[in-house]
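Quick note —
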Amino acid sequence: MFFDRWGSDDWRIRRRIIILLLLWCVGLVTYIAIYGPPDQLREAIATSLIILIGSIVGSYVFGVIWDNKTKIPSSTTEIKQTVVQPAPAPASPVDPAPPPGMAES
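Predicted structure written out below.
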């Protein structure tokens, strides 16, 4: 069927169901628009079918985004380790000179 070479098996099944539902909804709306008498029942059915079409398309797009964001990576994750060396200690403690103006003993 349509686009059967793209994606995984579960997305192929989803795509088939979505395309068939969209074709069915469009066929019903077209039939009601061409052959249906203009009464409130058929207007309500057509409106509901159009809302269903929008919901199917929105759910499909949201489902693709959700599936891509929550997908577990198939490859192993590489962990990088950084070794930090401590700063070297000063060679000998230095006694600082007192500031000028201080009494020296």
